[in-house]
């Protein structure tokens, strides 16, 4: 009897310990806001890992690109130094989920602002205005712009605005989607499809990385406002991020960041955008 009673007491103690641990996980550090994390000197920022000139994880484990620099500059305005940042890969199709689940504090990853996304997340910015374009092999003479896409195989990334635009407005085109643009690029190089489509600034980075292999053709045929993705309803964070973007544009940090990343490819910095407080 004493053994049974001891066992019951032991099981009860374990149950209470598990319950307490669960309550701590649900109500403790897991629910900290981005600004709470910033006060602790730490932020997790989502970027792309495979976009030269914008968001790239280098072979030595470091990170480079315009989005990386914007992420750092905004973090600095929030009181977080570069060594307090954790970079997290944020593929196009996963960005809303990463924000909603609290896996990132904010995302700077060629993230076009649109109404559908604003149903799930908030945006700061825009911090850059791009336009959709086309990348083809250097010897391709058939594709000169969107009007010559009929019957062509075009690759883009799942969940991206460019992929949705091709699917909706270019129905005679054979759309192929992949998880990353680097996979699209491999297929283009191998001849699996005829073109890769995304924003002009992204394609310029890929063309510069593979000198002589690819070229950007035609003029941009959309307008894409790049925003910083934030947790829905966090107005204080959104206001502070917008303040930060305006500040780095005003003090010249924005242009310096562009010239030291995308600008190296010869791509000229446009006029910085006006922040629209969504």
TrEMBL record:
InterPro entries attached to this UniProt entry: Bact_solute-bind_prot3, SBP_3_CS, Solute-binding_3/MltF_N
Superkingdom of source: Bacteria
Signal peptide: 1-25
UniProtKB keywords: Signal, Transport
UniProt entry tagged with the keyword Chloroplast: no
SUPFAM superfamilies listed in its UniProt record: Periplasmic binding protein-like II
Segments forming domain Solute-binding protein family 3/N-terminal: 42-265
Protein family (similarity comment): Belongs to the bacterial solute-binding protein 3 family.
Name used for this protein in its record: Glutamate ABC transporter substrate-binding protein
UniProt organism field: Nocardia suismassiliense
Lineage of producing organism: Bacteria, Bacillati, Actinomycetota, Actinomycetes, Mycobacteriales
């Amino acid at each position: 009897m004493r053994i049974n009673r001891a066992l019951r007491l032991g099981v009860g103690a374990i149950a209470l310990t598990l319950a307490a641990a669960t309550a701590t996980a649900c109500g403790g550090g897991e629910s900290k806001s981005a600004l709470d994390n910033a006060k602790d000197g730490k932020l997790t920022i989502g970027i792309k890992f495979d976009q030269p000139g914008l968001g790239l994880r280098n072979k030595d484990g470091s990170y480079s690109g315009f989005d990386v620099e914007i992420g750092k500059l905004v973090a600095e305005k929030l009181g977080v130094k570069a060594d307090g940042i954790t970079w997290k890969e944020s593929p196009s199709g996963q960005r809303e989920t990463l924000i909603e689940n609290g896996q990132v504090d904010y995302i700077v990853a060629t993230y076009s602002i649109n109404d559908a996304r604003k149903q799930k997340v908030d945006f700061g910015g825009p911090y850059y205005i791009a336009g959709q374009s086309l990348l083809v092999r250097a010897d391709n003479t058939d594709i000169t712009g969107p009007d010559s896409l009929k019957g062509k195989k075009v690759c883009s990334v799942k969940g991206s605005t460019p992929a949705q635009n091709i699917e909706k407005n270019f129905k005679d085109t054979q759309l192929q989607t992949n998880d990353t643009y680097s996979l699209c690029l491999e297929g283009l190089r191998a001849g699996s499809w005829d073109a890769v489509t995304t924003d002009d600034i992204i394609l310029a980075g890929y063309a510069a990385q593979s000198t002589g292999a690819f070229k950007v053709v035609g003029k941009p045929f959309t307008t894409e406002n790049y925003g910083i993705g934030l947790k829905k309803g966090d107005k204080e964070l959104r206001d502070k991020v917008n303040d930060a973007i305006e500040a780095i544009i005003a003090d010249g940090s924005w242009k310096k960041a562009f010239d030291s990343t995308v600008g190296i490819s010869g791509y000229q910095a446009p006029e910085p955008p006006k922040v629209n407080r969504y």
